Amino acid sequence: MYAEGETSVTEPAPTRDHTERMLSGFSYPVKQQGSKVTITANGYLKATDIDVPSDISSAAFFLVGASIAPGSDLLLKHVGINPTRTGVIDILRLMGANIEVLNKRIVGGEPVADLHVVYSPLKGIDIPEELVPLAIDEFPVLFVAAAVAEGQTRLSGAEELRVKESDRIQVMADGLQVLGVDAQPTADGMIIQGGSIGGGVVTSHGDHRIAMSFSIAGLRANAPITILDCANVNTSFPEFKNLVKCLGLDLVCDDCKDAGGRATKGSVAEES
């Protein structure tokens, strides 16, 4: 915005476009041609009201929870459905999830909708690689969905998961195996044979999405699940614990220790 001439960014694969949309929301000219985005210093920012929709990455835990818990019927309101972020909806629908996208509208340049989720038995699938970048942050909880789906689910092309807050491929595979799930990590994904989820003690390795995913697994577990090292949930979703308890998950948060013996917060999730 402050450089002479044109500045262009070309991306090799689809990525989130919130910045481009926000600039347009402030009336700053952004030129887009396929995978190329270009701006100059000739634009002007104009003040505007900003509406921040609910985050689909946080909504994903409830999309999966309602999809796998028999009897569920849940409406999630005012969720951002930016097309670079909706892979979790597409993948769950391919698995047989009953998700309706209602009341679509544009707010502050971003598409927003209400998501209606009703329980439906899931089936295993080969996850299309073109959906991987559109759901990269949601795979920990999608692995939980795969663990209770009928048949095999195979993910590939997701090596980025190994360099998130934790190695989410290995950490989720280790935890699912503790819970009795046949989950085999690969270099760039995982192969999961769906079935039942048992109880046990797993560690989140300080990764908020891992901790919340194993909490959601408690909806279908046949014994209590204890999750260690959960304090980081408060950094991204401090309301998570209260929300899932209000929706019927038997979640108890206690002081505990992580694998290294450090005091932290843990949670126990069991079937509800």
Description:
The structure is a single chain. The chain has 272 residues and is of the alpha+beta class. It folds into two domains: 1-48, no CATH class; 56-270, UDP-n-acetylglucosamine1-carboxyvinyl-transferase, Chain. The protein is 26% helix and 28% strand. The protein has helices at 18-25, 56-68, 87-94, 139-148, 168-178, 208-217, 233-236, 240-246; strands at residues 7-10, 31-33, 36-39, 73-80, 98-107, 110-118, 152-155, 182-186, 189-193, 200-203, 225-228, 250-257, 263-270. A four-stranded mixed beta sheet has the order 10-11-13-12. A three-stranded antiparallel beta sheet has the order 1-3-2, with no helix packed on it. Helix 6 (208-217) links the parallel strand 10 and strand 11. Helix 2 packs parallel to helix 4 (139-148), helix 2 (56-68) runs parallel beside helix 6 (208-217) and helix 4 runs parallel beside helix 5 (168-178). The longest helix is centred in the N-terminal third of the chain and has 13 residues, at 56-68. Mean pLDDT is 91; it is low at 256-272.
